[in-house]
C-alpha cells in the first residue's frame, strides 16, 4: 500500500517533502502571516507492518529549536492515549521512529485538544448547577469566544488558557479545573466557590487552535504581546477578555501555557512592574511554595529569569493584570517534554497529568484565597 500523510483536519499541521523507502521527510508549516512554527499534527495511513522514520527537516528553524533536545514526539492510534516515540535531534532535523501495527496512526507535538472537544466541554460545564455561559464576541474567523462563570464569593478569580494555540496542554488543564470546580462531591471546591467568583476562558485562541498554529491567531498576532493595547482588528480575543476583566476587576489570575524547553512545571510572576512591592509579591511566591508542597508535579527551582525593577513587559497579561488591577497574577508553564522530577517514560507530560495539576492548583488556592 502507498503511505499517505494527511493534516487536513482541526489543528492539523504538516507538509510532505518526500518518501524514500521507510523514510518520510516532512516540514512544519508556519503560522498564517507569521514566521512562528513548531506545532505539528498529522496522521499516517497505509503503513501497517512497517517501521517508519519520520524526519522534520525544518525543525532547526522552529521558533524554539533549542527545545528539541530531550523532546519526544507523541503518537496515538485512538486519539485518546498519546505515548512517546523514540526521538532525536541533530543538524536541525527532528527524527522519530515508530513501528506501525495499525491501519492508522496519529502524531503530534503534544496531545491535541480539538475545537470539537472544546465545544463539548463548554456545553457540558454550562449545564452544571451554578454555572453561566457568555459569548464574549467573535474571533477573526468568526468563532465564538467562550467565558464560563461560577461561584458567589467576594473575590474575583480569572483563569484563561491557550493564548498560544499550539500549547494544547493549557486546555487540558482548563478541562481539569472546570471539572474540579463543578464536582458536587468536592468539598474544597464548594467552599472555594463560596469565597470567589471564577471567570474561566478555556481557549483564548480558537482560530489558531483550529488552524494548527503554534503561537498566533488568524492575523498572525501573538496574543500575549497585545495586552497593553489590543484591538478588534488584530487581537479581538484579548480586547474582549480584557474588557470583561475591566467590568469585574481581578484579585487573582492564572494564565495557562506550555514551555518548549524546560522539563518542569513552573510559575512566572510579575516582578518588574512599576507598582511592585515585596509584600504583594510575597503572595505570589507563597502560592508557588504551597503548590510545590501540594504536588510532586510542581517545583520552584527551574523557571524564567525575573524582570529587572521597572522593566516588566506590560504587553504580557500577567504583568498587565498585576499592574492594572493589583492582582496576584501568574503564568503557569507546563512542559512539552516531561516534569523530570516526577517523570513518566511512557506518556511523559500528558493530558491526565495536566488535569491533575489543575486540581492541585485549585486545592492550593482553596487554602490561600483568604490571604489575597
From TrEMBL:
<comment type="similarity">
    <text>Belongs to the peptidase M14 family.</text>
</comment>
<dbReference type="InterPro" id="IPR050821">
    <property type="entry name" value="Cytosolic_carboxypeptidase"/>
</dbReference>
<dbReference type="InterPro" id="IPR040626">
    <property type="entry name" value="Pepdidase_M14_N"/>
</dbReference>
<dbReference type="Pfam" id="PF00246">
    <property type="entry name" value="Peptidase_M14"/>
</dbReference>
<dbReference type="GO" id="GO:0006508">
    <property type="term" value="P:proteolysis"/>
</dbReference>
<dbReference type="Pfam" id="PF18027">
    <property type="entry name" value="Pepdidase_M14_N"/>
</dbReference>
<feature type="active site" description="Proton donor/acceptor">
    <location>
        <position position="333"/>
    </location>
</feature>
<dbReference type="GO" id="GO:0008270">
    <property type="term" value="F:zinc ion binding"/>
</dbReference>
<feature type="domain" description="Peptidase M14">
    <location>
        <begin position="111"/>
        <end position="372"/>
    </location>
</feature>
<protein>
    <submittedName>
        <fullName>Murein tripeptide amidase MpaA</fullName>
    </submittedName>
</protein>
<dbReference type="GO" id="GO:0004181">
    <property type="term" value="F:metallocarboxypeptidase activity"/>
</dbReference>
<dbReference type="InterPro" id="IPR000834">
    <property type="entry name" value="Peptidase_M14"/>
</dbReference>
Amino acid at each position: 500500500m502507498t503511505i499517505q500523510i494527511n493534516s487536513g483536519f482541526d489543528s492539523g499541521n504538516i507538509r510532505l517533502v518526500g518518501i524514500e523507502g521507510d523514510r518520510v521527510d516532512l516540514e512544519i508549516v508556519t503560522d498564517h502571516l507569521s514566521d512562528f512554527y513548531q506545532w505539528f499534527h498529522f496522521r499516517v495511513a497505509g503503513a501497517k507492518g512497517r517501521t517508519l522514520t519520520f524526519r522534520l527537516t525544518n525543525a532547526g528553524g522552529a521558533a524554539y529549536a533549542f527545545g528539541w533536545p530531550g523532546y519526544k514526539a507523541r503518537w496515538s492510534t485512538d486519539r485518546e492515549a498519546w505515548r512517546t516515540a523514540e526521538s532525536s535531534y541533530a543538524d536541525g532535523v527532528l527524527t522519530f521512529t515508530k513501528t506501525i501495527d495499525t491501519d492508522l496512526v496519529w502524531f503530534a507535538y503534544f496531545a491535541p485538544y480539538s475545537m470539537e472537544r472544546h465545544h463539548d466541554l463548554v456545553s457540558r460545564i454550562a449545564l452544571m448547577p451554578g454555572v453561566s455561559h457568555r459569548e464574549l464576541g467573535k474571533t477573526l474567523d468568526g468563532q465564538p469566544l467562550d467565558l464560563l462563570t461560577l461561584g458567589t464569593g467576594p473575590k474575583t478569580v480569572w483563569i484563561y488558557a491557550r493564548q498560544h494555540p499550539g500549547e494544547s496542554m493549557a486546555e487540558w488543564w482548563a478541562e481539569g479545573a472546570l471539572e474540579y470546580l463543578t464536582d458536587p462531591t468536592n468539598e474544597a471546591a464548594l467552599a472555594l466557590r463560596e469565597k470567589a467568583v471564577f471567570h474561566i476562558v478555556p481557549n483564548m485562541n480558537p482560530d489558531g487552535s483550529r488552524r494548527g498554529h503554534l503561537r498566533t491567531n488568524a492575523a498572525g498576532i501573538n496574543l500575549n504581546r497585545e495586552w497593553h493595547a489590543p484591538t478588534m482588528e488584530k487581537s479581538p480575543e484579548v480586547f474582549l477578555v480584557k474588557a470583561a476583566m475591566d467590568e469585574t476587576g481581578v484579585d487573582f489570575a492564572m494564565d495557562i501555557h506550555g514551555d518548549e524547553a524546560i522539563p518542569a512545571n513552573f510559575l512566572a510572576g510579575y516582578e518588574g512592574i512599576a507598582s511592585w512591592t515585596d509584600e504583594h509579591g510575597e503572595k505570589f511566591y507563597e502560592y508557588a511554595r504551597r503548590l510545590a508542597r501540594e504536588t510532586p508535579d510542581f517545583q520552584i527551582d527551574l523557571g524564567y529569569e525575573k524582570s529587572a525593577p521597572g522593566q516588566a513587559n506590560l504587553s504580557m497579561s500577567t504583568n498587565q493584570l498585576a499592574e492594572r488591577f493589583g492582582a496576584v497574577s501568574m503564568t503557569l508553564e507546563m512542559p512539552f517534554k516531561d516534569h523530570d522530577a516526577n517523570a513518566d517514560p511512557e506518556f511523559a507530560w500528558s493530558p491526565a497529568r495536566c488535569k491533575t495539576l489543575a486540581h492541585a492548583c485549585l486545592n492550593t488556592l482553596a487554602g490561600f484565597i483568604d490571604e489575597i
